[in-house]
Design brief:
single chain, mainly alpha
Length: about 130
């Protein structure tokens, strides 16, 4: 295996930044939906709205975990670059490996959250289908 250089962890910066932008946009969208559902539920409580609120709570928790994992991955990439800079090669390689694992975890959570979102939309649209 070749030694890790400063450019290797730096390559992840743009990817992680784009992922974090997508996660943040998703979070802001959910925040808006939660506020709307909260207002609607206070006006007229019903089981469907309560179910949607519970679904959004789950998705928000997943989004928070995705964001934390992504930010942690970015932070470890920066630490890795510093370790390469001070020539702690073995430690830098271990830290970089952990950063990659955190990024994989974040992306896996994103897949799970997308699956939940699609199920929620399917349920939302199901009342429009003709039998």
């Amino acid at each position: 295996m070749e030694h890790l250089t400063l450019t290797t962890p730096a390559l992840l910066f743009s990817a992680i930044s784009l992922i974090m932008l997508a996660y943040t946009n998703r979070f802001l969208s959910y925040a808006s939906i939660v506020r709307d559902l909260h207002t609607r539920f206070k006006e007229r409580p019903n089981a469907i709205l309560l179910g949607q609120i519970q679904n959004l709570k789950t998705r928000l928790r997943l989004t928070r975990a995705m964001q934390i994992s992504g930010i942690s991955s970015l932070l470890l990439c920066v630490l890795c670059m510093f370790l390469v800079y001070i020539q702690w090669q073995t430690t830098a390689e271990v830290i970089f490996g952990i950063a990659l694992i955190l990024l994989i975890f974040s992306l896996g959570l994103s897949i799970k959250e997308i699956q939940i979102s699609v199920k929620a939309l399917d349920l939302h649209l199901s009342d429009m289908e003709m039998d």
